[in-house]
Amino acid sequence: MKCIFLEKFFSASRTASIRKKICGIRETLREYWERLNKLCATCPHHQINEQLLIQYFYKELSMMDKNMIDAASGRALMDKTSAAARHLISNMASNTHQSQMVNEIGAASNQRLENQLTELTSLVRQLVVGKH
C-alpha cells in the first residue's frame, strides 16, 4: 500500500528532482536552510539520512558561511551529532535573519538622514545666496 501511494504521489522522477533541489544552494544561509527544510517536508521519503543532509547542506555553503559555522561550533561541524549540527544551523540562520532586518532598518534610517541633510544643505545655500 505504501509503495502504491508513493508511486502515485511521489514518482521516482519527482523524488529525484526534489533530492537535487535539496542538495543545491543559490541563496543566503537562512534562505537555503528554510528551503532545505521545506523541501524535506514536501518529500518526507527522500531517503537521505540526517547526517547526509547536513553534509550536503554544509558542502554547498560559501567558504565564509562554512568558516562562520565552524567557528560557532568550536570545531568542524561534521564532528557534531546531527541534532547538534541542526540546532546550531537553525540558530545561525535565525540570527542571520535578525541581523539582516536590523541592517535593512539601519539602511532605511540612513537614507532618510541623507535626504534630510541634502534638503538642509539646499536651504543653507539658498540663505547664503539670498544674503549676497
Automatic annotation (TrEMBL):
Residues 4-59 form the Retrotransposon gag domain. It comes from the Eukaryota. It holds the Pfam family Retrotrans_gag. InterPro entries: Retrotrans_gag_dom. This is Retrotransposon gag domain-containing protein. It comes from Mucuna pruriens (Velvet bean).
